[in-house]
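Example 3.2
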Amino acid sequence: MSEAMTEAFLDRVEIVPFEHQGHVTGYLLLSGNEVHILPKKEFRGRACSRKGIRPVVDRLLAQRGYLTTRIPLDTPAKNRTGERLGFTWTWRDDRFDYYILARNPFLKGN
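Structure, written as C-alpha cells:
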C-alpha cells in the first residue's frame, strides 16, 4: 500500500485499542459502523477472545446501535473472528461474507 493510500485509509478510520490482562492486545478499526479487528502480532490467537474484546464491542454497540463487518471468502474458519464474537451472517458477494451485530449475544437473556 502506498503512503498516500495509507494516509487516506487512516483519515477515514477510528482506531480503538482493546486490552486483555492489562496489555493492549489489538485494535478495532472503525469506519462508520463497519469494524475490523487488528490483533497485535505477539497476541494473535489470544487477543481476540470474547472476554478481551467484549467491553469495547459493548461500548460501541451502545454508541452506534449496531456494527457490521466483512470477511474475505477465502478466510479460514479459525480466523473468522467476527463469527466467534457473535456477528450474524447477512449476505455474500463475489469477494466477502457480510455480517451484522445488533446486540451482545453473550449477555444473559439475549
